[in-house]
Amino acid sequence: MPGRTLFDKVWDEHVIDDLGGGVAAGRRFKAVQLGGPSGGCVPAELGDTPVDYEALAETGAIMGSGGMVVLDDRDCMVDIARFFLRFTRQESCGKCTFCRIGTQRMLEILDRMCEGDASRSDLDDLAELADRVARTSLCGLGQTAPNPVLTSLRYFRDEFEAHLEGRCPAGRCAALVHYRINDACIGCTLCAQACPVDAIAYRPYERHRIDEEICTRCNMCFEACQDGAVEVVSGNEICATS
């Protein structure tokens, strides 16, 4: 499709809305992950990028297998980078030192970030490791494995910075968020029924409460609530309301 762009109206309606079902109601279109596990994450702000090899390469992504994963504002870019890196780490044949060990060390850093245990030096080490793995690996897998990390750092660095402060702006990293029930609760008990660890006591027709010492942050109460009463909070910020 010469000249076709990632997010122009025709492409958006055909691929994202018609074929993919569109972004969920109330959610904001955030980015597209392209090219399979070794691809890259292109933000919505680069919506005029043509879908061709050279143009995508300039963004740091690759055409790859031609796959496209649409992300919204409830997707954490640190966790997305970790998800794809975990796959390429497992697929490494182990011949290259930087691919074998570098991907493992990058994954460990991303794990620490998602768990709230990372330091400022971890962010610098992550960027350096990603660059070296890309430049020194012998095969295409190792050379492109850091792409999700490099593009996420390039376009969504603020989310990495937030994780260093103990916050997950998307409300996805369980160690960095908590759940609470606001005044919109009508006491329908759906959240209590959905909770697998009984962290929410049945209180029909009354505002429910979440026992944070028991809560495993599985997100099931959030998914079950139909009244916008369950909130995901990171730090002092409300990330999402059901």
Fold and architecture overview:
This protein has helices at residues 9-19, 53-59, 77-91, 97-114, 120-136, 140-144, 147-155, 157-164, 190-194, 220-224, and strands spanning 29-34, 40-43, 68-72, 178-181, 230-234, 237-241. A 3-stranded antiparallel beta sheet has the order 2-1-3. Strands 4-5-6 form a 3-stranded antiparallel beta sheet, with no helix packed on it. It is α+β, with helices and mostly antiparallel strands and 242 residues long. It folds into 3 domains: 9-72, no CATH class; 77-164, de novo design (two linked rop proteins) (Up-down Bundle), CATH 1.20.1440; 177-241, Alpha-Beta Plaits. Helix content is 41%, strand content 12%. Helix 3 runs antiparallel to helix 4 (97-114).
Short structural summary:
By secondary structure, this protein is an alpha+beta fold. It has three domains: 9-72, no CATH class; 77-164, de novo design (two linked rop proteins), CATH 1.20.1440.230; 177-241, Alpha-Beta Plaits, CATH 3.30.70.20.
